[in-house]
Design brief:
The structure is a homodimer of 186-residue chains.
Chain A lengths: L7 H19 L2 H8 L3 H7 L4 H25 L6 H13 L8 H7 L7 H21 L4 H25 L2 H14 L4
The structure holds a DNA duplex (30 and 30 nucleotides).
DNA sequence: GTACGACTTGACCGATTGGTACAAGAAACC
DNA sequence: GGTTTCTTGTACCAATCGGTCAAGTCGTAC
């Protein structure tokens, strides 16, 4: 146990970018070894479960990030819209205004969904629920709050698809602004 | 040249469903032969370019469908909103209320985007442009029309992601209704 | 300095990938 | 029936896939 355990987090971050760019099937072990700089042995030492465990770690990492930076602030929101505003800012920063794409979204559309059903479902469900809760506390009736929340989350995901397809980050920025405006935010 | 050319269209339709379910990388030739019922020989006879040509044919097929059923009606719209209404209906029918996912969207997020950049870009660009045009003729100023069009197309794509992730077609139906309402439609 | 053990490496494994070659089969004309 | 033309299944190919593992490397403890 000599080693300082090093950089599991760094590896996971690198893996996240790889899965983001190539999807689950598209990320071959050779790409992974090339872009992480680690040999297969090291990878299987860190993730004995292979690619599936790597992807799981990435999903857990993302889930953790969103939980602390997005979901929990929304959960703790009092009746104001500050947390919702903050969510938009965090989202824009995280996705780099549409230059980055959502790994969970990529998995959701691809074959990988069947392997990670629960984590994919959980991520989006948590997001919608947290946002709906905050909107409800801000005065909307429950049904409206949920509908608005779904529209925002779907809008963000769709904007990512469009931004990537058109190779135009403007779409993402504009859509985010429209969604914000739709909730009555400046 | 004896054969009546048979069923290329049928094969393309089957291929579309395969790529829809598995993405480009995920659709292996063995799945394709299994689900189309055709041997490799037949497939390479129909599509000498292999998987790439199959995907291209699928994209072209989809593009054709949307052109005749969505884009052109929008282009020919007079000042009314009937064509926009029709678009929503056609979209809901095509995506089976979210049970089906958008092949072009799947390609856009995955590795395949780099192989089919132009077709992916073209599809979404045509959709946004056609819708924006119809909205503009219905009285919106150009910038607003384009923003609204982007929001609708992004919203649809995002709703597909969400519906698939949550395994809940309700999300798709509700989002479509909200988007319609946002344009002032009943 | 030596022994230990966590970590890394890269050759190697069988399975599967996309793609090719080709012989057998089926359909239309004579 | 014979011939020609096209279509089909299948055996095969090199390359690559995800994954394994024996052979090391190297920092630390003694």
């Amino acid at each position: 146990m000599a080693r300082p355990l090093a950089d599991r987090q760094d590896v996971i971050s690198a893996l996240a970018e790889i899965f983001r760019d190539h999807g689950f099937e598209g990320a071959s072990l050779s790409t992974i070894t090339a872009r992480t700089g680690l040999g297969k042995g090291s990878l299987y030492n860190l993730f004995p479960g292979g690619k599936a465990e790597m992807a799981e770690a990435v999903l857990a990492h993302i889930d953790g990030w969103f939980r602390t930076h997005v979901f929990e602030p929304l959960d703790q929101a009092d009746g104001g819209m500050a947390a919702v505003q903050a969510m938009f800012q965090a989202t824009d920063a995280y996705f780099r205004s549409g230059r980055r794409v959502c790994v969970v979204g990529v998995f959701a559309l691809g074959d990988a969904r069947d392997l990670f059903t629960e984590q994919v479902r959980g991520y989006f469900a948590a997001w919608v629920t947290a946002l709906a809760g905050a909107l409800e506390r801000a005065g909307r009736d429950p049904a409206q709050a949920r509908a608005d929340a779904e529209e925002v989350v779907a809008g963000i995901q769709g904007a990512l698809v469009l931004a990537r397809a058109l190779d135009d980050t403007g779409v993402f920025t504009r859509t985010l602004a429209r969604l914000r405006a739709g909730l009555g935010l400046a």
